[in-house]
Amino acid sequence: MNAATVPDGESKSTGHVVLIAAAAALGGFLFGFDTSVVNGTVDAVRAGFHLNAGQIGLAVSCALLGSAVGAWYAGSLADRFGRLRTMQIAAVLLGVAALGCGLVHGLWELVFWRVVAGMGVGVASVIAPAYIAEISPADIRGRLGSLQQLAIVLGIFVALLSDAWIAHVAGGAANKSWFGLEAWRWMYIVGVVPALIYGVLSIPIPESPRYLVASDRPQEARQVLREVLDLKSESALDRKVEEIEHSLRKEYKPSFKDLRGPRLGLLPVVWTGILLSVLQQFVGINVIFYYSSALWHSVGFSEADSFTITVATSIVNVLVTLVAIALVDKVGRKPLLLAGSAGMTVALALMAWCFAQATGNGNALSLPAPWGPVALVAANVYVVCFGVSWGPVVWVLLGEMFPNRIRAIALAVAAAAQWLANFAVSSTFPALAELGLSFAYGLYAAFALISLFFVWRAVRETKGVELEAMPE
């Protein structure tokens, strides 16, 4: 049998597998929520703790260092303790850190708890796409894998919406709210709720069949395959288990040394994953979701209007992610990435041009008519282009592009690289903004153009390919 295809009747989508993938994708919701909730706190924390541009950049981005650590070790944790137990570890880290961030008394306490939260986000960012890819039928794996990105953008939306609501109730992010705590503290504390839900929902879903086979538990793997792939015949189950065993036989317990190869010390597919991750961040998307409220406020919009604009942008992000889910298994991964890169390049270049027309500087910066509305439209076009392509598609590819024997470890490395790139972009944006927003967005436009050529030359299409058939 060709490993790249599954005969009719042997594998089909079931409501069960969709529900399982949706539960696992809640890790993506926490990812989006915990990385974006900081958006509404930037100005209040900066004023309350008297921070300069470098310090507020650290406060916003330090979680990403924790995310890199969490992502780096997530693969090892998943291979040692299983995918489900690793999800529960992420939920605990995120819940505890959400409470800690809301009760801090200074910058360094906030940095500590943000790093802890980041570790939980990093673990969730690796384990969710790996688990979803491992329990999904090949014909809908792209759509189920895109649930991770849908959950991320929903998490971003809920974080920004809750920020806006809490600030509205309190009359401002810096004002006192419930129990005498400032509103920005409650923006962090509400993160306990989704962390608890994620931990609880990870209990009843089944373990990954590939982890079960690797752990010498083939009968349990057969039962999971029977349920999630709807395989009816014993012969079909036998063939599937044999495929998994064959793909894992060379490396029963993969480690980082298995990533070594001829291209600067790594396998070519590992470099492709790393560069996809880095470029996904270097186009500057998280500047929109970490700093947009402060950004729009700085160019003349009121605090309330800035929150409203940010929430509206997150709604756009959710809607275009739904479009991506509908297209990823029909159009393919590579065409979506190419189209997204082209669109982002144009939109970012337009944003750079708009901000080149700005007058004043710092908090006195303003965009004369008609450049403010044009910049706002360009920013949302940029989000559309990213949301329909590089947002979901990179996570789909990272979950499926690596061979079985190195998937968890290689995904951990690629995700760690993504978090480090995210940190580099997020921590430098306040300083770049002081140099000039036109320069900052021009730089991101250049990386968007680079991403176009990279995908054209280096990325292989994986639509419809079985995980067991992924080449190195």
Automatic annotation (TrEMBL):
<keyword id="KW-1133">Transmembrane helix</keyword>
<keyword id="KW-0813">Transport</keyword>
<feature type="transmembrane region" description="Helical">
    <location>
        <begin position="335"/>
        <end position="359"/>
    </location>
</feature>
<feature type="transmembrane region" description="Helical">
    <location>
        <begin position="186"/>
        <end position="205"/>
    </location>
</feature>
<feature type="domain" description="Major facilitator superfamily (MFS) profile">
    <location>
        <begin position="20"/>
        <end position="463"/>
    </location>
</feature>
<feature type="transmembrane region" description="Helical">
    <location>
        <begin position="144"/>
        <end position="166"/>
    </location>
</feature>
<dbReference type="GO" id="GO:0022857">
    <property type="term" value="F:transmembrane transporter activity"/>
</dbReference>
<keyword id="KW-0812">Transmembrane</keyword>
<keyword id="KW-0472">Membrane</keyword>
<dbReference type="InterPro" id="IPR050814">
    <property type="entry name" value="Myo-inositol_Transporter"/>
</dbReference>
<feature type="transmembrane region" description="Helical">
    <location>
        <begin position="111"/>
        <end position="132"/>
    </location>
</feature>
<keyword id="KW-1003">Cell membrane</keyword>
<dbReference type="InterPro" id="IPR020846">
    <property type="entry name" value="MFS_dom"/>
</dbReference>
<feature type="transmembrane region" description="Helical">
    <location>
        <begin position="16"/>
        <end position="33"/>
    </location>
</feature>
<feature type="transmembrane region" description="Helical">
    <location>
        <begin position="53"/>
        <end position="74"/>
    </location>
</feature>
<protein>
    <recommendedName>
        <fullName>D-xylose-proton symporter</fullName>
    </recommendedName>
</protein>
<feature type="transmembrane region" description="Helical">
    <location>
        <begin position="371"/>
        <end position="398"/>
    </location>
</feature>
<feature type="transmembrane region" description="Helical">
    <location>
        <begin position="309"/>
        <end position="328"/>
    </location>
</feature>
<feature type="transmembrane region" description="Helical">
    <location>
        <begin position="264"/>
        <end position="289"/>
    </location>
</feature>
<feature type="transmembrane region" description="Helical">
    <location>
        <begin position="86"/>
        <end position="105"/>
    </location>
</feature>
<dbReference type="InterPro" id="IPR005829">
    <property type="entry name" value="Sugar_transporter_CS"/>
</dbReference>
<dbReference type="InterPro" id="IPR036259">
    <property type="entry name" value="MFS_trans_sf"/>
</dbReference>
<keyword id="KW-0762">Sugar transport</keyword>
<comment type="similarity">
    <text>Belongs to the major facilitator superfamily. Sugar transporter (TC 2.A.1.1) family.</text>
</comment>
<feature type="transmembrane region" description="Helical">
    <location>
        <begin position="439"/>
        <end position="459"/>
    </location>
</feature>
<dbReference type="GO" id="GO:0005886">
    <property type="term" value="C:plasma membrane"/>
</dbReference>
<feature type="transmembrane region" description="Helical">
    <location>
        <begin position="410"/>
        <end position="433"/>
    </location>
</feature>
<dbReference type="InterPro" id="IPR003663">
    <property type="entry name" value="Sugar/inositol_transpt"/>
</dbReference>
<dbReference type="Pfam" id="PF00083">
    <property type="entry name" value="Sugar_tr"/>
</dbReference>
<dbReference type="InterPro" id="IPR005828">
    <property type="entry name" value="MFS_sugar_transport-like"/>
</dbReference>
